Amino acid sequence: MKCLLVASESVDLLFYWTDREFEQNLQEQYGVTHEEGHKPPAFEDRISTQFAPIIISCSSMIDKIDDCYTSFTTENNHIYVLHQFDECLYIAVNGDGDEKDEDLRRKIYVMKKLMEVHFGVVTLSSTHLRKELRPQDTDQRNRLWKKLQGLLGTYSQLREQDQSFLVEAVERLIHPTLCEQCIEFLEKRLVHQINNSVERAGEEVLHAFILVHTKLLAFYSSRNASTLTSSDLLALILMVQNRYPSSELEDQLSEHEENTLVPEVFYTPEPSPTSGASGASSGEESQTPIFQFVDPDIQMAEDSLHTLEVPPPDPANPSRVFLEATIKEGFCPMMPHNMYSLQLWPGITLVLLTKIPNSQVAISVYYFLDTLASLEKRLSEGVEGSSAPRSPLPLHDLRSKMDKFIRALSVSDAQLVSQLQITWAEFKHKAFSRGGPGVSKELLPCCRNMKMQLCGLFRQCFVLKSTENLQRLAPSLQERSLALVQEKLVDWKDFLLVKSKRNITMVSYLEEFPGLIHFIYVDRTAGQMIAPSFNVTDHSTSELGKGPLAHFIKSKVWSLVGTARHYMQKGYSTATFRDGDYYFCYFLWFENETGYKLDVIDLPLLPDDSAPIGMLAWDYYRKLLRYYSKYHNGEVVKCYELLTMHLGVIPSDYVLQHCCQLARKLWEPSRIPLL
């Protein structure tokens, strides 16, 4: 019994996702209480009514004491986790005991990450984000919510079944020769051909990579490209898997919707019985509750909306995504890109990320937003005029760059910047004219208005303009690119699909490490992981066998990861403990570039309601590396993790010895050139 919703302070429902059990529970509750002879309220109204007291209570507490509760448990053991991002309140609920506070908090942060990838800088303005999440057009809102619901459902399933989403690190397909051949092919053949074609419509391929289900076969970035962060790469893999779900994962999503039970099943690379496009449609629809409306103006469309199906997206149309980028022109945490997902065969996908022609506007917008946010913070703290003890306020630099920016945009589209121009004129009058208040707290409303106008400009340029109506790589160019990669990999296709299911097996480790049952090794600097494959479906057998034993061991490994994160939150980098017949170990350590182990330090303590440890929703490890690097100036610091599971009869000394030897053995494979 699960639910996640996003609401505004005025109790406007901006997004919701529920499983079937939660929906039925709500329908039964309102179906019994409504008056005889009257139709029960629409589901959207029911869920708004259900959560209205909580939302109003949170808003009141924030207004009165500038604080709010972050979680609570009801008498019937339903867990509620809440988090306020700007003016939007996220609420995650679990009533079946499958999820704990940390799981719900992670789901909230993942949802926020997915919105950032889809809407970019617009997420920095609650006003514009509300317009995006709840558009006036009912069909448009239905399509958007179904898309987000599908992504959230796919994430929940992958986190239950896929080790890479469990530890939030990218899993590579281990085959050094083929990986290097594919990287060379992507660079010298594919990307070169596209970027030199007259059919590219001004776009430039920055990144190209090949996925086999969720595993990364090869990745190439052009010289002009920024580094693609692990957080963004994981989000893109999630989007691809949602669009082209493997056949068993698609079945799980449907079964999850019907039974609200998470089956212990791992998806396999068996060919999907449907095409990629139709698979994406069914994968997105399986998580979607029925929409009902009671507004008289749209009541007549209610019955048709019950069976409304989202048409499958045209594979030739790219998805607009917003990813972190640092280039010579500047930094933008949500730079617009076009993403092309081209399915080679069921389970194998080519992904292209392109730079769009007007992307430099995004860098300028973010620079102005960041500058205004710094100014707003300084003014709120009482730093006014020339009395600032810190660096001077960059007002004159802001003035010259903003004037130049508005002039440049006015040449191409005067109407686009008209409102920004008016707001900027008001800002300059108050900040720089002799009759104005100058740099004082009276400038704060102007700062907020400028930020809202800049977010609106970003929305007009990159979000509202659908990729279906914009220039893009010509369909013929996409088809040639697809055929080119298919020709390269056609002899490897079956091997790759099997390899994705049995990437690394425990057989090669059992002789050297007797008693070792499972391990997960993570290079947090590169955001990559290595672990033996889990195959616990009824269709395949691994060293764990199949049936209850395999499911039991898998559940223990998932529990180990949660326990390790709990100790990390408390400041520990090492944990060893017994659990029944098993012995578990967790280690986090730092090395320099040559592999020399650096001194251990205490990890920063995190409060219980902090952002979850991981790399997808919030890159904890990047912040941890910055924290540790302060003690090693001039050195390149790398971070690693190792989790192991041994039989409990193995003496602890041997277990620790195994862990040291295993870390050394895995150190070299992690250096396979890939990213």
Walkthrough of the structure:
With 675 residues, this protein is of the alpha+beta class. It has helices spanning 20-33, 43-65, 101-119, 126-133, 138-161, 163-167, 176-195, 230-243, 247-259, 276-285, 302-306, 360-380, 395-412, 418-432, 444-463, 475-489, 493-501, 507-510, 548-569, 620-629, 652-667, and strands spanning 2-8, 13-18, 71-73, 79-85, 88-94, 170-171, 204-212, 215-221, 319-327, 330-345, 348-355, 516-523, 528-530, 574-579, 582-591, 638-647. The strands form 3 sheets. A 6-stranded mixed β-sheet has the order 6-13-12-16-15-14, with helices on both faces. A 5-stranded antiparallel β-sheet has the order 2-1-5-4-3. The chain has a 5-stranded antiparallel β-sheet with strand order 8-7-11-10-9, sandwiched between helices. Strand 3 (71-73) and strand 4 form a beta hairpin. It starts with a strand and ends in an 8-residue tail after the last helix.
Multimeric status of the protein:
single chain
* Order of the strands making up the biggest sheet: 6-13-12-16-15-14
Structural class: alpha+beta
Radius of gyration: 26 Å
* Discrete helix count: 21
Strand content: 15-25%
How many DSSP-defined strands? Answer: 16
Rounded mean pLDDT is 82
- Stretches where pLDDT is under 50 for at least 5 consecutive residues are 256-308, 384-390, 670-675
Query: What is the share of helical residues?
Result: 40-55%
The separation of the N and C termini measures 40 Å
Q: Characterize the overall form.
A: globular
The largest sheet, given as strand count, sense and whether it forms a barrel, is: 6 strands, mixed
